[in-house]
Amino acid sequence: MQHRFSLKGEDVDVALVRKNGGLSYQGHSVTVDARGRLKLTLADGSSCTAHAAKVGDVWWVHMQGRTFALERIEPGASSQDHGDGLVAPMPGKILETLVKAGDTVEAGQPMMVLEAMKMEHRIVAAHAGTVVAVHFQSGDQVNQGAVLLELEDTN
Predict the structure, then answer these.
(1) Residue ranges matching CATH 2.40.50.100 in the chain
(2) CATH of domain 85-153
(3) What is the pTM of this model?
């Protein structure tokens, strides 16, 4: 299970691997008890316990006298720069493609309509530019974070 978190403005990739009925993080054994405490067994055989609680989108982890706030980064769910690709904010179905490669668009112009969670979501141009590529068409299912269109800045 690959996850990405933000810790003090830095992106942190965490890969948890199922191993012998438990989890492994970077080769270290991780177990979780019924109270949500995490026990991390290090390669040298030593161990430490962490307490974790989720509040909204943030995991608060208390370990060895320090507290860390880890915010999970969902693909497509942030306003982070994705190059000039416009990404799906959640899984869904493309209802309508309003532009094609080569079209010139203005900032805020709708380019695609995505149906997700029984609602329509308009994918709009973040800035004026030229559509370089359209990766999905009407009827296509998309995953969260999928690059739907690519837009080249005209400035």
Answers:
(1) 85-153
(2) 2.40.50.100
(3) 0.49
